[in-house]
Amino acid sequence: MPQVESGCLASLCTDFPRGHPRIFAQRRVKPDRPGGNFALSHVRRGGYITMMDSSQSIWQLLRQLSEGGMNLEQCAEAIEAAQRRHLEVGDYARLDLSRRERTGFPEVVYAPGKTVDELQGILTSLLAHDRRNIIISRLSREHFAALAEADVASRYYERSSTAVFAPQPPETMVGRIALVTAGTSDLAVAEEIEVACTFAGSTVVRFADVGVAGIDRLLAVMPDIARAQVCVCVAGMEAALPSVLAGLLSIPVIGVPTSTGYGVNQGGVNALLSMLGSCAPGVLVVNIDNGIGAAAAAHRINSLIAGGTRE
Q1: Are residues 137 and 12 in the same domain?
Q2: CB within 8 Å of 168: residues ≥ 6 apart
Q3: Range of the domain at 57
Q4: Domain check: are 64 and 201 in the same one?
Q5: Nearest to 289 by CA among 256, 264, 261, 263
Q6: Which CATH number belongs to the domain containing residue 264 in this structure?
């Protein structure tokens, strides 16, 4: 049954059946191997080029065919499916089925500009290909009601207008992301980040309403923030908080400017320029209200740091 979430995400990973995430790490070629000491980022143990996975799947299918485990027609269909990386839906969408395998972060469906029928077509196609944790961002409550089905689990997060279909939180969560907001009004974007990171497999700890207007609130939680692998700071108005954090922390700081603020804030432009012009080196900045972009960056950094380097 569809669920609507309006509060904190503390129970996020206990309400649904659990699955197992594919954790990505870095792999280095040893100096005594051909190619020397060459490093590839975002490399899984199975290989960076996803076609390697496809080749392994085809080999296994051919073995099943030779052993009588399937007939020729079944094998041909399975090979075609293994090689399929994109899925065309009508004349309006081309879904990237291998994005999570390539990047460690799943494709997120952006709802604005899409009709209910288009969203339904995309969702139905993803479910038919056994996709789980399908996130649709900026989805209105009315559109969610139209998409939700009794036989498909779903959850709607009211504050951020984010929906998750076929939710299956990872069995093992990775690392720790500190999600810091300057004010309570920034929680809509923060929730979008928290939902996306959590279902991608990162542990998220939220620190809300610790902006510079009362700096003592921030100092009280700094030891806890510093225990994370990466910090995501969501701030509107003058957006001074990311600079403060970057000056106090040794971990990466990702700034997310929000459209929160009065007149001169110009829908978040003031916050964006403030973060870009930070005097504290090392502040990484995404677009205004871009919670999904910040989540993707934070999850990748968190996974690489928490996973370490593996041969």
Answers
A1: yes
A2: 16, 17, 18, 19, 132, 133
A3: 29-85
A4: no
A5: 256
A6: 3.40.50.1970
Are the beta carbons of 20 and 170 closer than 8 angstroms?
yes
The structure's pTM equals 0.75
Query: Beta 25-28 vs 39-43: how paired, if at all?
Result: antiparallel
DSSP annotation string for 106-132: ---EE-TT--HHHHHHHHHHHHHTT--
Amino acid present at 11: S
Residue-by-residue pLDDT tens, the chain, 311 positions: 666 665 555 445 444 443 333 333 333 334 343 444 333 333 333 333 344 445 556 778 888 888 888 888 888 877 766 556 667 777 888 787 777 777 778 889 999 999 999 999 999 988 887 788 899 999 999 999 999 987 889 999 999 999 999 998 888 898 999 999 999 999 999 999 999 999 999 999 999 999 999 999 999 999 999 999 999 999 999 999 999 999 999 999 999 999 999 988 899 999 999 999 999 998 999 999 999 999 999 999 999 988 754 33
